Amino acid sequence: MQMLSSFRNFSPFGILATVWLAAIFIVQPFGDFPLNDDWSFGQSALDLARKGRFVLGHWQDMTLLVQLLWGAAFCKLFGSSFIVLRWSVLLLSLWGLWGTYRLGEGLGIAPWHRLLLTACVAFNPWYFSLSFSFMTDVPFYVLLIWSFCYYQKVLVSNRSADFLLGILLAVLATGIRQFGILAPLSFAVAYLWQHRNLRAAGLAALSIAVAFGSLQGYVQYLESIRPLSASFGSFGQLLKQLGDGPRWEELGIRSGQILFYMGLWWLPAALILGWYPTSLRRSWASGLLALMLTLALAYIAWDRLPAGNILNNCFIGPLTLKGAFMGQHTFPSLSPSQMNAFKCLGFAGLFVLLWHWFRRLTYREVNLRSAEFSIRLMSFLAIVLYSGYLLIGFLLWDRYFILLLPLLGLLVFSKSDRAGHWMSRLMGAVLFLAMLLFSIAATHDYLAWNGARWKALNDLEIEKGIPASQIDGGFEFNALRQTNGNERNSISPYGKSWWFVEEDRFVVSFLPMPCYQSRASYTYRRYLPPRVDTIYLNERQRLEVLDSLYLGAEQLAEEQGRDSTRRRSGLFALRLDDVNQYGFAHTYENVHACQRLDISLWRYNPNHSECGLVVAHPNTAVFYTFIRGALQRDEKGWENIEISLTLPTSFLGHKIDIYVWNPGGRAVWFDDLKVFRRE
Predict the structure, then answer these.
(1) Using CA atoms, how far apart are residues 602 and 61, in angstroms rounded to an integer?
(2) Left, alpha or beta for 561 (phi > 0: left; psi -120 to 50: alpha)?
(3) Dihedral (CA of 384, 390, 391, 394) sign
């Protein structure tokens, strides 16, 4: 009896923390290497620790300062490495889970139900895997959640100390990502709603002013040091994107993506706590509305799921090695029917979630001035603000959705929740266990293959003395080494990898590379599925120039599109429009697989037509590629299309046609086509 009593008194969060630490032990978060985008954040933190120099790189579009100070402090204490930075975030991550557990206290949610809420966040693939990197997602989440915790306490007890701590944590969160300001914004409205007096108005205004003022002061400081990069996030950019007009189809797709994941990750809790109705008599209208909304979102977003970046099909983490984006890897993938079943599971969870929330809105009596209502109002406003940013922002990666999980939990969890039917609880427990095991195993595999990759790269650089400029070691390697400065390559299955590769004589990959010879292999153990797998180090012979080609408009007749109104060099440029769609045509004879064509072309495209460069066999079924993306733009508005294109081993022809094509009809000018053929 004494042992049973001790167990009951043991903190539920202590159980979660124990499982969390055991999961870290299984993952084995070692290895001095970056992951995903944290090569940029980590390098800035290491520079701050080693040289006392604060620099934001070109890849950083967030404020970041607080995270750099945190990481640099750990490096000062324990040594400068990506391992130390990774462990600094793991420590923050556990504190964030404690904040998530405390988040429902103001609503009177039972400890074991708060534990369920926290566990669904802790072992979510996004939160769990990102805790093992120096990405900004988890540190931002931690500070913002703790800010909400203290703002929540203000709405319950109205203590000044909690108010000050809420502001402080919101300012710190804003020092990682600009959108930390959503905490004081949503709190200010909820607090003013609750109290409706001059003191409340003053505190609400103070909360916003301090957070916004600190953000603006920091941005002005950065601008005084040097001009901010074009990608640096600002409210001006958001307003510009909003002013460009709504993209209704894209808004619908993004809404479906976001809500699909919310339904997927909250389905275990919904089944365990019985969020489904036991009787349709009083809730059929809510159920019908939830069903119609779910079906509409599923119809709109179905083909754009999963959203990608962290959770990719059946594995975690972007596979940032050459060829992996084209499916050249050994990681498991769901079949189309399995993927459809996975999507059905997520939308089923969304249906249950919406039905549960609609029922509560319809039938539950709530004091609109109570602390409970104000807390839920604050959470709802934060969801609306953050979702608005996700809907109109430039990029939408799945990892951006983490913050919505606990905020949505505050809307749907209740102190009156009761456990569901035993069969429902069993199904929910099975789904949660599957999520937990997948997150642990897939995160382990992500770190394991990266460890093998960096072992190969270290051997190549240090033992063999190969310069980084000759290596395609994957996104993090080439970005960290700045092998081609800030210059990206065109995205093409036949060209160099887009991630700043200068030359790719050596390539690290998941599979042996066509047109290369495998020089070494590095094994690692993976859990999904359990086996030993391999990272390959590939080398190709040095390429020599066979011939070169230059085509300018001066060589053309007027009826072939020669035009003097726009030109980059010389007297003329090639104009293509609805009358003349093709130009700069040239046919190469005696070509074969593994030959490389280094191509450069300049384009003036004021109407943003879908036009570009075609490289194709006369029979396009043999080989065809259309390159449209431009990576550079000069001061006169001319764009450079540049690609190093290797003919694949499947190429069996002997001829290649190169020409420019403007199918759009609006006038476009081309100039200075250069081609070097290498073998």
Answers:
(1) 29
(2) left
(3) positive
Q: Are strands 562-563 and 573-576 parallel, antiparallel or unpaired?
A: antiparallel
302-308, Cβ contacts within 8 angstroms, sequence gap of 24 or more: 302/256, 302/343, 304/253, 304/256, 304/257, 305/256, 305/257, 305/260, 305/343, 305/346, 306/398, 307/257, 307/261, 307/396, 307/397, 307/398, 308/397, 308/398
- Partners of 316 in beta bridges: 311
Place of tokens 């079943």: 341
Q: What is the CA radius of gyration of the chain?
A: 28
Q: Which single residue is written with the structure tokens 């993090």?
A: 476
**What pLDDT score does 279 carry?**
62
Cα gap 123→136, rounded to integer Å: 18
Residue pLDDT, tens place only, 361-398: 765 566 778 888 999 999 999 999 999 888 887 677 89
**Global pTM?**
0.92
Q: What are phi and psi of 548, to 5 degrees?
A: -140, 160
Question: What is the predicted pLDDT for the residue at 250?
Answer: 85
Amino acid at 523: T
What is the number of alpha carbons within 13 Å of residue 68 lying toward its C-beta? Answer: 24
To the nearest 10°, report the CA torsion of 635, 641, 642, 646. 180
Residue type, 89: V
The one-letter amino acid at 111: P
- Looking at residue 5, its pLDDT comes to 45
Calpha distance 341→535 (Å, rounded):
32
Supply the DSSP string of 344-399, one letter for each residue: HHHHHHHHHHHHHHHHHHHH----TTSHHHHHHHHHHHHHHHHHHHHHHSS---GG
Regions in the chain scoring below 70 on pLDDT: 1-10, 229-246, 277-282, 362-366, 394, 416-417
For 251, half-sphere exposure in the C-beta direction (CA atoms, 13 angstrom radius) is 10
Per 3-state DSSP, the chain is made up of helix, strand and coil in percentages (nearest 5) of: 50, 15, 35
- Tell which residue, 131, 118, 138, 24, has the closest CA to residue 432: 118
Rounded CA separation 527/507 (Å) = 25
Cα angle, residue 211 at apex, residues 207 and 212 outer, rounded to 5°: 110
End-to-end CA distance of the chain: 80
- Kind and range of the H or E element at 143? helix 137-157
Exposed e or buried b for every residue in 219-229, given b needs 16+ CB within 10 A?
beebeeeeeee
Q: What's the pLDDT score for residue 419?
A: 75
For residue 657, the cross-strand partners are 587, 616
The DSSP secondary structure of 304-331, one letter per residue, reads G-S--SSEETTEES---STTGGGT-S--
Q: Which of 510, 517, 516, 555 is nearest to 536 (CA)?
A: 510
Q: What was the pLDDT predicted at 346?
A: 95
How many residues appear in the chain?
Answer: 679
State how far the alpha carbon of 487 is from the alpha carbons of 483, 640, 679, in Å: 9, 12, 24
Token reading at 184: 């004081």
Residues 675 and 548: beta-carbon distance below 8 Å: yes
Nearest to 448 by CA among 35, 148, 16, 93: 35
Looking from the CA of 346 toward its CB, the CA atoms found within 13 Å total 22
